[in-house]
Each structure stands twice: as structure tokens, then as C-alpha cells.
Amino acid sequence: MLTKTNLYTISEIDLPEVNIQRKSNNIIYVLFKDNCALDINLQMRLLDHYNDIAGNKLMPFIFMAAENVSITKEARDNATKIEDRSMIGSSAVIVTTLPYKLIANFYLRFNKPKRPFKVFSNEEDAVKWLKTINL
To answer: What's the rounded Cα separation, in Å, for the pair 89 and 87?
Structure first.
């Protein structure tokens, strides 16, 4: 997913389950690929990749999911436990289906992330919001 502006990719990590790109707007885009099951094992591997691509500094992130992506309860619970070790400074989650919206809002309500986290239906609004967050 790319905004209408002329963004280019500064760096990229492409894994079988996830594509991670640091774009020229200084936002890191994370796309969970088709049929990805996010569990603690993948989550911990991603933590290292997120920190590497962010250059070990807090950065804004946009998260998106392709078809049939799931997250285990253990990974949801673990997300807030590892938040202080992560370079995810703020999270914009773009949801395009009702099930994904329910999952994102459930996480926001019950896991209560410590850092800014908001759900959007489009990239333009997500980018605008992320640009308002001072990291």
C-alpha cells in the first residue's frame, strides 16, 4: 500500500510472513502477508527486525494485514510486555475488513498499549495522525 505521494523505500526486510519497509516519509510500513499466524515466536523475531530497520530509535509504524491473518492470545498479551523493548513509537493500524477492525479495537481496549495506538480505515488518515505524534 503506497500513498499518492512519491514515497520510496529506504530499507526493506522481506520475510515469508511479513514485509517491513522504511519509507521516505520516515514511517515504517509492516504488511502481514496472506495466512500469517502471529504467535510469540514470530513476534520476537519481528521485534529484532523492527529495531534494526528503525535504527534503534523510536519510529512511527503503520501495520496492515493481507488475507486470513491471525494473532494468538499469547502474542496479544505479550505485545504490551515487550513494548518497552520495541522501537515502535506509535502504531497506526489500517483495517479494511470488519474482523480486522474488531481484533484491532479489542487489542486497544483490553491490552491497553502504553504508546500511541490508533485504528484507521485508510493510509492517508493514518499518516496524518502519525505525523502529529512527537517521538
So the answer is: 6
Distance CA 109, CA 28 (A): 24
Angstrom distance (rounded) from CA 23 to CA 8:
6
Q: Grid cell 510486555 — which residue?
A: 81
The conformation of residue 34, written as its DSSP 8-state character, comes to T
State the Cα–Cα distance between residues 98 and 23, nearest whole angstrom: 27
**What does the DSSP assignment read for 59-71?**
EEEEEEE-TT-EE
The answer regarding whether domain 9-123 maps to CATH 3.30.750.24 reads: yes
Span 22-67, pLDDT tens digits: 999 999 999 999 999 999 999 999 999 999 999 989 999 999 999 9
